[in-house]
Here is the input.
Amino acid sequence: MEITNEMRLMFLSKSENESFSRVAAAAFISPLDPTVSELVEIKTAVSEAVSNAIIHGYDGTIGVVTLEMRILEKHTVEITVSDSGKGIYDIEKAKEPLYTTKPDEERAGMGFTVMETFMDSMTVESEPGKGTRILMKKRLQTDPT
Here is the structure.
């Protein structure tokens, strides 16, 4: 598919930047006139991916999280969230609902489940010691008129 617009945003792995990433994602897709539901789903998926990078990828240290978004033809949004943090040793285990590596911090372990539920597709690439890359896609409804 042809890219009709794209952006890249890099920010420090600080918790306050999670909300910043949500706002940036919403602003970027606003020309597509998403429904309220689509907007909430995309913002939530971005928030979960960025939170995972901050909390699990960097685990209390400061690094850089990258949010990339592309608008493809046919109202498809492609979102990539990546970090150069700790990486995931067992991606399939990490994707299991309710699984968390931080139970003492009251983490629900639903981040990947939420991302998969709200997006049309999601893939996770990770290498221990090198970081994680989450790629998500969602096709927005087209104007019915």
